[in-house]
Structure formats: C-alpha cells, structure tokens
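Go through this chain.

——
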Amino acid sequence: MAEVKPKTRKERKTIRAKRRGEAQQKRHRQSLKRRARNRSIKSTIKTFVKKAVVAVNEGAENAAELNVRAQSLIDKASKGSALHKRAAARKKSRLARAINKINAAKQAQA
C-alpha cells in the first residue's frame, strides 16, 4: 500500500520528528504541549476581552468585574511565557481604550 503524503505543515513536522533522536523527540513533544497550553491561554484572554467589551456596551452590572478578570488573565499570561510583556501592555491598553470610548459615548448621549 502506498504511503499517504502529509497534507498540513503540522503533519509534516510530526513525521520529521519521528526520524529524529530521542532528545529531539522529547523537545518536540514539549513544544507541542507548550503550544497547546499557550493557545488555550490566548483563547481564554480573547474570550474575556470580548465579554468585557460587550458587557460594558450593554451596560451589564458585572462589566467592571469582567474587565478586571480580563486584565488579570493578561497579566498572568505575561508572567509566564504565553504572552510578551509589551504585548500584554498593548492588549490591556486597547481594552481600556475601547471601554473608555464606549463609556464616553454613553455619557454624551445622556
């Protein structure tokens, strides 16, 4: 039976990893675990940032709490290696700016 060619980049990397020595295979396994963990952390951050912006936009009672939670998650991610400290500062700044913009628009209407 003919060997099936890998379609994605990840599949090719996995096949190449099988040809390596034990140390390289271990490093590859570790990198896959780190990648999965970092993607999960970043996804959680994006979710909470969206929730915070929507809550402020709708005038929800827990808007301040969601904002604090989002900023806390960003800080925790930057403390580890999931997010660079400048990227974290930029995300927090953009979140605060978006929330302030929404609040200013609401006050202008009132």
